[in-house]
Fold this protein.
Amino acid sequence: FAQSALNANSLVSPSAMPTSLAGSEPPLFSTGIVLAPTVIYFAAGLYVASVLFFLIRLCVQIRRTSSLVDEASPAPLQPEYRAMWESSKERMSIRAVTLLRSDDISGPVTAGFRHPVIILPVGFPSAHSETEFLAAIAHECAHIQRDDFRKNLFYEVVALATAFHPVTWFIKSQIAQTREMVCDRMAAEQLSDRRVYGQCLIQLASRMPPAASAAGFHTIGMFDKDALERRIMTLMTSTPRVTGIHRYLLGGTAAVLLSVCA
């Protein structure tokens, strides 16, 4: 009986079958936009080209930075400037750092892949007062204590996948501005007053073009970002220190939000 039933079912004509079964198999899902393969290949090619462009640019900057450090020479200092340099290192608890000078930069910068270095323009100590020199050195020492050079390199490598996106540019800009504000506060503690440090920032910025100190190099400079007014206003306002727990909570929240956006 079972065999005859199977044979009867197998002889059912397609016209007797339901319309949903007689026709072609419906798609599992449907989308409103269907892109041609040519468009997909073109978009993928643009993405790969953009990633390669930013990767090559980063490699060129790293190579130029390495050459800058290799070609820089030790910076001679007068006794009073030498004392301020040693005092800044001691207050920031950094020892393995070298002070160099170079003709290829217009402002103080921090670099160094294995060993941190601070590079000054040739004639920088003689062209500025002792207070201005102390402000610049203290700021760069703060970068070294925070290991900002290696952190910035890590950020650049991580951001390569979305380096073309304006949101990535905005996030990197905000990180750079926040980094400079934190170092301003750390450096201001070495001077007698925050206002004195703020005046030194204005005087130093007036003698060098913005972002020219690190143009073409992968370095950390005092004026790489044009946010001097905001930095000074933040420096003059007293804000409570953020505890370690708050930093972890803020960092975790930011990571979750960025993951959702991605």
Q: What stands out?
A: The longest strand covers residues 98-102.
